[in-house]
Write a structure and sequence with these properties.
With about 230 residues, the protein is of the alpha/beta class. The chain has a single domain, classed as 4-Layer Sandwich (Metallo-beta-lactamase, Chain A). It is about 20% helix and about 25% strand. It contains 5 helices and 13 strands. The strands form 3 sheets. The chain has a 7-stranded mixed beta sheet with strand order 1-2-3-4-5-6-7, with helices on one face. A 4-stranded mixed beta sheet has the order 8-9-10-13, with helices on one face. The N and C termini lie close together (about 10 Å). It comes from Halobellus ruber. InterPro entries: RibonucZ/Hydroxyglut_hydro (IPR036866). This is MBL fold metallo-hydrolase.
């Protein structure tokens, strides 16, 4: 199983509900890079951290016209520029995210506390130089949707045994509790793996609260898989 990419005849759909859907473009890759499209209050479709896939535009069209593409993590440029160009829209970045716009071959727009008129509130999860990490989450309080690009995930290498959702290995000792504990979502959509759509608020709380105590077993599991 490749860590990233590989052969694929098409994406695997995940996380569908009435206001959005997700997909994994390369279902067999270990990184399980997940992308999402969500419908905003403006009626437009906002595509978050996309990895392109055959027939992706047909999936997006089920929910409406694309209003914009969002990069939620400074190293998640993925195929955002290609998708934006194809739909004649801009790539949207938080005002404070640096070192990304110049690498995008597409128009760029900045957003502050809210993503345009989408109703999604920006959550600054991390903005640090050591480790270099700039990440914004998107929360729609009325819809109950929280999108977290990287700080938490459900791919195997994020999770300790018994966890449904895990904190990224590099953040386990300094989990973003203050930033994410203010949100009580009905669903948590992540950038690596399928989302959490049942008991999401309690699962997120447990992941943050137990990140440090579960670190030894999480690291042991990751090492075992690396060596296998």
């Amino acid at each position: 199983m490749p860590m990233k990419g590989g052969d694929s005849d098409g994406y695997r759909e995940i996380d569908r509900w009435d206001r959005g859907v997700g997909w994994i473009a390369y279902p067999d890759e270990e990184m399980q890079r997940a992308s999402h499209a969500v419908v905003g209050d403006d009626g437009g479709v906002w595509v978050v951290d996309p990895v392109d896939a055959p027939d992706l535009d047909d999936l997006l069209a089920e929910f409406g016209d694309v209003a914009g593409v969002v990069v939620g993590l400074d190293r998640h440029k993925r195929d955002s520029a290609a998708v934006a160009r194809r739909h004649d829209v801009a790539v949207h970045l938080p005002q404070w995210m640096s070192g990304v716009a110049g690498d995008l071959d597409a128009p760029v727009e900045r957003f502050g506390g809210e993503l345009a008129d989408s109703g999604f509130r920006a959550v600054r999860i991390r903005d640090s130089a050591i480790p270099p990490w700039q990440e914004v989450g998107l929360s729609h309080d009325d819809d109950g949707t929280l999108i977290v690009p990287e700080a938490v995930g459900t791919a195997t290498y994020f999770r300790a045994p018994g966890e449904r959702l895990g904190v990224h290995p590099m953040l386990r000792l300094t989990p973003p509790r203050r930033e994410l504990s203010r949100v009580a979502p009905d669903r948590v959509l992540v950038g690596h793996g399928e989302g959490v759509t049942t008991d999401a608020a309690s699962v997120l709380r447990d992941a943050l609260e137990n990140a440090r105590s579960n670190a030894p077993s999480a690291y042991g599991r990751a090492l075992k898989e690396l060596l296998s």
